[in-house]
Design a protein that fits this description.
single chain; three-stranded antiparallel beta sheet; 627 residues; Rossmann fold
Length: 627
Amino acid sequence: MFIDNNVDEVSSANSFSNSVYKTIYLSLKDNINNFYFLTFLGFMGRACLLINANIIGIWVDKLCVNNAICENRNSYFKNYTFDQFFTLLLFLSFIGFALSLYFRFNISKIGTLSTAKIYDETTYRVSRFPIHFFDTNQFGKIITRFSSDYSAITRMSGGPLAEVLSLIFDLVLFCLLILLASPYFFPVLLFLVGLNFYLYKKNKFLIRKERRQLNIYRAPTITHFSETIQGAKVIKVYGKENVFTNKFNEKLKEFIFQRFRTLNLVSFFSLKMSFLNIAIFFITGALGAFLMKFYYISLGSLIVVLTFILMTSSSVQVFFEWLALIEEALTGIERLDSYLKMNLEEGNFLPIEAQFNNGKKNYSSNHLRNVANPLNGLKNAKLTVKNLSLRYFDHTPIILKDISFDVEAGEKIGIIGKTGSGKSSLINAIFYLYPFLNGKITINNYEPILNENKIVLDNYISLKDFRSSLSLISQEPILFSGTLRDNLILDKNISDDEIFEVTKKLGLRKVFSSGKKILDTEMKENGGNFSLGEKQLLCMTRCLLQNRPIVLMDEATSSIDPYSEELLVNATNQFLHGKTQIIVAHQLSTVEKCDRILWLDSGKIIQFTSPEIVLKAFKNFEDTKFN
């Protein structure tokens, strides 16, 4: 595997690209009108609640006995009684709470739905990325995108989104209501907001950088831990526990150091804002006492202003702290957005309902193919490889070198060759897992659609239909989470009786001795309920149940005992009789009964003829090398 640690790691920019904001807009697009309407309702709700302070200030001036400092300059409320003030405050409070509650609930819902859209489409795209993406990206890096990065987004998409918007409403309303109470304090308010903004600007790029570094340091830790778990047996056999533990501790220390560095930076930023806001509040109090002494403002107005200045100080500090979390969420969106902008595997197209278009045209499944799959239901099919050349990466050698051959419908061929000759690469090529340098592979003269220009041509079918005509029994058995039934039938409608018929002939009577209820057994991780040999036989069962015209086996008997191998051979002879079979063999006895054998060496075809001729020549060639 070739690993490029610099692939797709977003870390260096000091600002977010327009693509990030476009992604946010597209995620909100279906609910954008509701979003604007709810924003208006939320603003009016906060206005109803906050304007109560101004009304209470007017009420205080009306009740004050010292007319010199309590002059009521608002003639509208001049004749209001106690009951009228109380009723007005009660009414505004009720309306404010109702609107705010409605706003918070629905805006949180919209935020959650928008986040789900980003996550779902990112997952859809990643599952359709080219195989080389997974070859060149660390497992931990991919997992980090869907764990910590996504968590950072979800932390801001629900209730916190409503909280941030409410803080913005409050700051706007504080400016308006302080102007309404006494315009003398408006410069103080602007000074307060300006200083906090300056402090934020001085720190935001550093905080953003440290948060990005934190995400980068997290991925290697996850990758190393995953590799250690997967290779636990080998590590124990060779007694290398301490080596892997020490390496993990080194990576963990780097991550923890970066985490403390980030937290300390954020905490110090918050502390600086607190000291700044306390100082401004004392300045406001002193200014208010001076203005009231010379009768520029009333007592009620001073109370309102001090209340709002105190609330503004607190809100500004909280807002900029929230803004730091928004930065973290935007970093998460930025990293997921980098996946949204990547090209899918050739032959995979965005569905018509895709929200985040990367410049490629969207297609519905009907658009891709207006007729049924012509390969569906065939007993066998002809496979043609023509002038095929393949290499995995630009900087690596060519693995398959201009090879051409035909496998007739119903023919059984074997593929032999030394390690590194290109046997498994040929299997990968038949499934179109990697782009070809040149050449093509067809089934019954049908070629998969790999670009938009070939969608309307008659001799092309979708990549999904092409692959659905192929079955693979690989060297390494793969079982998925879910029930045993889900693993065996996949997307086909297969009865339990059909499953039992195949499993019995493959020698799995012991596994299925408890009857049909075993099919509802939940699979443990990596099929931990079963032995390696049983897992291989279950994978073979899955292949036989799919009943596809072409079956490929890559050393399928390597994990089972001789008795089970004999059962498998007999079962495959029965179930696969008449189907097109391609068998990659590491033991020559596996392919002795094939119709023809393809001998590969260094990516070239040496011979492709009867087993007697090829096996004899192959043995002589190998004997010559060692003698």
